[in-house]
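User: Some background: our group keeps a shared notebook of sequences we're curious about, and every so often someone picks one and asks for a predicted structure to add to the entry. Today it's my turn. The entry only has the sequence so far, pasted here. Could you supply the structure so I can complete it?
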Amino acid sequence: MSVPLILCCLWLVAANVAAMIPSRDNHWARAYALIVLGIPLLGWVTWAHGPWIGLLVMLAGMSVLRWPVIYLARWVRGRIGG
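Assistant: Of course. Here's the predicted structure to add to the notebook entry:
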């Protein structure tokens, strides 16, 4: 297994551990930190392994951080006028 994929697995473990720890802000600060770390990691995986593996890693990250994705979709839908 390559270094980018190992780091993605560690990112997923860290995200799950962070979700288990109680939070006063509904985990938003941790979600922002995971997004900041995850975007360059996703680019590295895509560059090293191609777009299909990058897409799988992106879907895995979206399943972990589903609420930011839901709020982004609602915001975009509101801006478009739907």
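Suggested note for the entry: The chain is about 85% helix and 0% strand. The mean pLDDT is 93.
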